[in-house]
Amino acid sequence: MGRRWSFSVGTVKGTAVRIHATFFLLLLWVGVSGWLSGGPSAALHIVVLICLVFFCVVLHEFGHIFAARKFGVNTPEVVLLPIGGVSRLERIPDEPRAEFVIAIAGPLVTLAIAIGLLLVLGRMPSPNEIEQGAGVQGLVAQLAYINLVLFLFNLIPAFPMDGGRVLRAGLASWLGHSQGTRVAAGIGQVCAVLLGVAGLFSNNIILVLIAVFIYFAAGSENGIVALRDITAGKTARESMIDNFVRLHSTDPVATAASALVHADQREFPVVDDQGRMSGFLTRDGIIRALAGPGPDTPIARVMEDIQEVSQWTRMDDIIPLLASGTKAVGVAGDDGRCLGYITWENLMEELLIARALKHRTPAGFPARAQPGH
Prior knowledge:
The chain is of the alpha/beta class.
C-alpha cells in the first residue's frame, strides 16, 4: 500500500482517506501537458477534471466499504493512487454472496454517478462535447463519460478488480473458495497481459501500470489462498517462530545491533520486564536508530508497535493481517507473556516446505535417471 508515502486527508465513519504522494505527480504531469497543449486554462481544466474523477473514485470505494460493513467487515483505510483507489478491508468474506455484494457495490455507485450527471446534463453528450470539454457543461459531460467507462472497465473479469471478484464469487459457489480463487487469479493474469499489451500499443502508461498491478495482485491472492490451505485449522502457536532472541525495552540500541550481527534474525520482538511484548524492532529500524539518535538510545524510543494475538488465535484470522502489510504479529501465552511471533516470510517458508513435501518422490520409487548417466 505504500503507507509511508501517503498521508491522511480525513476520516469518514472510521475509515481513513489517504492520498499517495505519487498522486500529485499525476496532477503535475497532466497539468503540464495541458499547459503545453492549450495554455493555463487547459491546464486548470484537466487538473479540475482529474480531481473530480478521483472524488468519484473515493465514492466508488465507499460503496465497497459500506457494503462490507453490512457483513461485519471494517475498512481501516482507503488510499488514492495514480491508478485508482484501493480499500484495505480487514478481510474478504469467504461466503460467495457477501463477496459478490461487496464487489458489485463499487461499480453500482460509479454507474449511479454517471446516470446522475447525465440527468443534470439533460441529454447524452456528443463525442465532440466530450473531447472538447468546453465550459461547465463540457466538464460534466466528460465526467459522466469517464464514469461510464470506469463502470465498464471495473467489470472486466481481471481478478482482483471488482469484475474479477464478482467472477471469483460465482466460481467459489461452484468450485469452492480455494479453487475458485485459483481459476479467477489465472483469468486475471491473462487479462492483465492483454491490458498491458493494449497499453503499450496505445502508449497508455496508466493502463500498463494497472496491468502490472493486476498481474502481481492476482498472484498474491493466489499465494494467500495457498497459505490458508496449509494453515487451515492451525492456531498461532503452531505456526509461530518460537526460537528467537528477545530484546528488552530498556536495552540500548547497541544491544540490538549486536544481536543483529550475532543472531540469525532480521527482526526482534521487544518485551518488558515481565516478558510481555511491548514492541518490535527491525533491521532497518536498528540502522536508522544508529544513524540517528545513536547506539545509547533506549530501544523503547525507537521500536515499532506490534499487533498481538493469543496463542489460540486461528491462522485464518492472522493471514489477512500480514497480507495487508503488517510486518509481524506477536503471539502471547495465556499469562500474557511473549511466546513468539509470525511474519510473512516464515509463512512463505512453511508454504515452500508444504509444497516440497507434496511433490516429493514417493518412497520406493527412484528418481528419474538423467540422460547420459
